Amino acid sequence: MSIPSPIPHIALSVDCVVFGLDDADLKVLLVERRLEPYGGEWALPGGFVHIDESLEQAARRELSEETGVTKLYLEQLYTFGACDRDPRERVVTVAYYALVRRGNYDVHGASDARRAAWFPVAKLPSLAFDHAAIVRVALARLKAKVRYQPIGFELLPTKFTLTALQRLYETVLEMPLDKRNFRKRILAMKLLDELDEWEQNVAHRAARLYRFNERKYRRLTESGFNFEV
Amino acid sequence: MSIPSPIPHIALSVDCVVFGLDDADLKVLLVERRLEPYGGEWALPGGFVHIDESLEQAARRELSEETGVTKLYLEQLYTFGACDRDPRERVVTVAYYALVRRGNYDVHGASDARRAAWFPVAKLPSLAFDHAAIVRVALARLKAKVRYQPIGFELLPTKFTLTALQRLYETVLEMPLDKRNFRKRILAMKLLDELDEWEQNVAHRAARLYRFNERKYRRLTESGFNFEV
DNA sequence: TCAAAAGTGTTAACCATACACCCATGC
DNA sequence: GCATGGGTGTATGGTTAACACTTTTGA
């Protein structure tokens, strides 16, 4: 608005850090690049923003096209705009992070037949562009956010045991938690519905299943409540 | 990366929510637009990103050109990309927020002679584009961040009284704080240097001045400390 | 001497932490 | 019957919150 016409136009992309949880590990969904630059290397799913779609629409479209993942928690992370982050030309990317239920999500190199696969966050391959930095920022955000907003539930199946929930927090926060204190705190929030269902086919006492009650959560946030683990 | 060439190119701007504090009020710096659309209305300082500058460089350049403000705390806020947020054409904007010392900063409609002025956040005029929404997001972020990172000091002169600091927190958080408890907590963090200087020319007992010790703060954050008000 | 704000401690309620054993189930 | 994880309560120490009066200064 301060410079004279013509307005400069810049290539704008979205990239998504998709987190999933499988038994022991927090995982990130990556796709294999077919084209140069970085052909054959792993990268975050993403692509250029079309002129007639919002940023979040672009992120959802790319995820669905590249990996078949459609229903997920999606939140804007940060916008990366270093001049030299893409060797071809100036590309600014708006990064999103997403949480999906089950790390073994039905991923497939969709429309363009690229390979997609889950990698444990602790053992990522080398990544194209500045994507390793983007993943670091996403991890820090997830770790911070999981403490004061109940987004962790997005990583679990709708019915889960308290032990599974605790493992999730221990995995994301990278610290052990006391079982009794964890249960006390979680149940004290009254955000979980206790179900009359139990684990099946386990070689030990079956654990009770719970379900996150989003309605109660909304009522609490509206009256100025702060979720804390 | 998933669509065939040609890559779409989009106009990309930065907009800054500059906060300043003057005695009683939290204020935001606005500029008056000369050109259509929204000619004559107030807007956030900002402008288009040049092809050879990073996003933060663009934000600092625009601020300096439009308002003369140069030294400040600047942090990326959020990227707004609704398709219709600018009536001329698709414009995605990366919003930043900034904190400056003294609401009576030497602002001037710099390079292009636009008027710049401070407005109390509680009484903003109607704003161009989606800038009112951007200010709302910035306020929420400031309110949240001030609780766990000592960015509040960026709004005060380098030497300040504890009462001034408390007023700052009360203003930003929009809640009264207990004087004795506030002092106890703040001093317990050991982030302030007690100076042998006092207020001048006040019609009551002069208050001691303090200075924020950034070095101590860095040492604490490195060893995993969390500032909490 | 009055007005205005500075400065200062203690108590009680609450919250977080640490910690160990019995229970149910499948093999 | 044994291995595996499920489920449960209490006591203690630390933290937070509530609260009022005396001091200093300039006008």
Explain what this protein looks like in three dimensions:
The structure is a homodimer of 229-residue chains. Chain A is elongated and about 65 Å long. Chain A starts with 8 loop residues before the first strand and ends in a 7-residue tail after the last helix. The first copy, chain A, has helices at residues 55-67, 131-148, 162-173, 179-188, 214-222; strands at 9-22, 25-32, 42-43, 46-48, 73-80, 91-99, 116-120, 159-160, 192-198, 208-212. Chain A is of the alpha+beta class. Chain A has two domains: 11-148, Nucleoside Triphosphate Pyrophosphohydrolase; 156-222, Winged helix-like DNA-binding domain superfamily/Winged helix DNA-binding domain (Arc Repressor Mutant, subunit A, Orthogonal Bundle), CATH 1.10.10.10. In chain A, 27% of the residues lie in helices and 28% in strands. In chain A, strand 1 (9-22) and strand 2 form a beta hairpin. The longest helix of chain A is centred in the middle third of the chain and has 18 residues, at 131-148. In chain A, strands 1, 2, 3, 4, 5, 6 and 7 form a seven-stranded mixed sheet that branches. Chain A has five helices and ten strands, in the order E-E-E-E-H-E-E-E-H-E-H-H-E-E-H. The mean pLDDT of chain A is 92. The A-B interface holds A 1-3, 7-13, 33, 35, 43, 46-56, 62, 65-66, 76, 78-79, 81-83, 89-90, 92, 94, 111-112 and B 1-3, 7-13, 33, 35, 43, 46-56, 62, 65-66, 76, 78-79, 81-83, 89-90, 92, 94, 111-112. Chain A binds a DNA duplex (27 and 27 nucleotides) through helix 4.
